[in-house]
Amino acid sequence: xxxxxxxxxxxxxxxxxxxxxxxxxxxxxxxxxxxxxxxxxxxxxxxxxxxxxxxxxxxxxxxxxxxxxxxxxxxxxxxxxxxxxxxxxxxxxxxxxxxxxxxxxxxxxxxxxxxxxxxxxxxxxxxxxxxxxxxxxxxxxxxxxxxxxxxxxxxxxxxxxxxxxxxxxxxxxxxxxxxxxxxxxxxxxxxxxxxxxxxxxxxxxxxxxxxxxxxxxxxxxxxxxxxxxxxxxxxxxxxxx
Length: 241
Prior knowledge:
alpha+beta, 8-stranded mixed sheet, 12 strands, globular
């Protein structure tokens, strides 16, 4: 079973820059893009002489719903709850580019939405696609937090909740070891929120957010490993004028 911590370990060790971009319109519709990009200069410090020996190429695009159609027999056997979890991911599009020749490793997960509460937890999309393809049980996943959003036209919320405190503690211990191991390398590991709103921003709950000159967008940057260690630190409230 591909565990969620394994995915996070790979991200951290490969010096990934993660960006979550949201564009909101006046009627509440919009788009969200989650992009994970390996920083090649940083990754060389970790890979060493193996950096030039990589041989990997993948260039793929898929819609999550296609997995349910392709593996319809597996999907049909799922419980109503499991189906509801996966169905929320149906409109999500995934683009993966991994090229050791071009030295480009990028994953983009996106969704168009009519209301932001419809947005799936994009950080779990690839794991869920693997579940359907390989007939893994949803209960076997080791996710320990969830990410959701709300917007009522004036107030925007990024809502992160811890769903498994025991697993969180386990991962925090593991991440502390990883952090110590990679501390000697000058790595670029960032988690960045980029949000665009239909009206000017009146206030932001996190004082570290950088607001644009027209007050209609913001950028907020975290350390990637700190964001994974303490997911709730990325909660955010934005009040528009």
